[in-house]
Design goal:
mainly alpha; Growth Hormone, Chain: A; 19 helices
Length: about 400
């Protein structure tokens, strides 16, 4: 998360202005790279989600990192737009499905208690990586150019990520003779520690896909992907367009990444302590405040408000998928379900990334895009909360049919 995911998701906005200037391309053309990766990521998420339910996570993770390292090195030799698109296609196979999805599913399998906190701690690597890498990337781009910067990032990723993946990744604690954390606690005791009762029945994807709760959840994550995809890739450009220096833009990105670290821990704790609705509302409101503050980027305080609030809100995109999946539908086929959630989230990203760039190219400002994303954020909040309510009713009906099969 601190290298593979951070570079291509959280820090890619630092490359927008230098790359578009150097290659003489538009922002919409650059942002299309994210859309290509997102579309490919849809397929990759579905495939990797199913593979994680059956095959070795260590092998999947190692192959993903190897491909990402080669992909980063390839960016160092880009001279034409078509080369960017080919590399973006390769990126889509690995960055989301091979990092975020992989880690989310593994943590879900290893923790029954404090799952929200565990997921948050694992995924906050993206925030930590952003804090560390943002100033380094900005300095390298200014002093050595963006081509050499990508080459350095390839080396950093290989050294930092590959050994950790090989040594630590295991699909289930049972493969090491262990049990998930909290597995031995009585169900009643677990229920007292969270607002959401754990799902006690095996549901599985074949039943889940027939529920309205599942499809409402998918719609919510499409909206979430639109918000994150539309904002994250344009952060640096928004700040420089507002009259700030590239150094200031990099600093705001670092503040944003610092907020992500705190935000992921906080969001996970809220989900653990107060339940899905409280966590979702908390994340959605901070997202809303973050997008609104982008309209005031030229002011002295606006960029800082954005960095803090959106840093909290964007954590929904990584923390919520495994937690909402397992708390709404249980652990059976969790890899498949989280993979599908990630795929739908990428649909939203694929839509919003080029559209926001096109808006900036056409109007000379991102403001119309931010207004649209404010509305999308409200839709996201409503659909996600409705999915939680519908899921509770869905599980109650299943439990009732099991207790009284003659009624069902």
């Amino acid at each position: 998360m601190a290298t593979c995911y951070t570079i291509f998701v959280n820090c890619i906005s630092l490359f927008l202005v230098p790359v578009t200037t150097d290659l003489n391309i538009t922002r919409a053309q650059f942002n299309l790279c994210l859309s290509i990766s997102a579309v490919v990521g849809i397929v990759a998420s579905l495939v990797v989600g199913k593979l994680l339910d059956k095959y070795n996570a260590r092998l999947i993770g190692s192959i993903s990192i190897g491909i990402i390292v080669l992909d980063l090195a390839g960016w160092a030799f880009v001279r034409h737009l078509w080369q960017m698109y080919i590399l973006a296609f390769i990126t889509g196979f690995c960055v989301l499905a091979g990092t975020r999805l992989l880690i989310s599913v593994l943590i879900t399998n290893w923790f029954d208690r404090k799952r929200g906190l565990a997921v948050s701690l694992a995924l906050m690597g993206s925030g930590f990586g952003g804090v560390v890498l943002s100033p380094i990337i900005s300095w390298m781009i200014i002093n050595s150019g963006w081509h050499r910067t990508f080459l350095l990032l390839a080396v950093i990723t290989l050294i930092a990520s590959m050994p950790l993946t090989i040594l630590t990744f295991r699909n289930h604690p049972y493969s090491m003779g262990l049990k998930p954390y909290g597995a031995d606690e009585p169900s009643a005791k677990k229920n007292n520690k969270t607002a959401d009762s754990p799902i006690q029945i095996d549901v599985g994807f074949k039943l889940v896909r027939k529920s309205s709760a599942f499809w409402m959840l998918m719609l919510g994550f499409v909206f979430m992907g639109m918000v994150n995809g539309g904002v994250i890739i344009n952060i640096s450009a928004q700040m420089t367009d507002a009259g700030h220096s590239p150094g200031f833009a990099a600093m705001i990105l670092s503040v944003y990444m610092s907020s992500v670290i705190i935000g992921k821990i906080s969001l996970g704790a809220v989900y653990d302590r107060f339940g899905l609705i409280a966590g979702t509302v908390f994340g959605s409101i901070t997202t809303l405040l973050g997008v609104i503050s982008l309209l005031f980027s030229a002011s002295a305080i606006g960029p800082y408000v954005f960095a803090v609030t959106f840093g909290f809100g964007t954590c929904l995109g990584t923390v919520a998928p495994p937690l909402m999946a397992v708390n709404e539908f249980g652990k059976k086929d969790i890899g498949t379900i989280v993979g599908i959630i990630t795929a739908f989230e990428m649909i939203g990203t694929a839509i919003a990334a080029p559209v926001t760039g096109a808006v900036a190219d056409h109007y000379g400002t991102y403001s119309p895009a931010w207004v649209a994303l404010i509305i999308v954020t409200l839709f996201m909040l409503v659909t996600l909360v409705i999915s939680v309510v519908l899921a509770k009713k869905f599980i109650r009906r299943l439990e009732s049919s099991i207790r009284n099969p003659e009624v069902a």
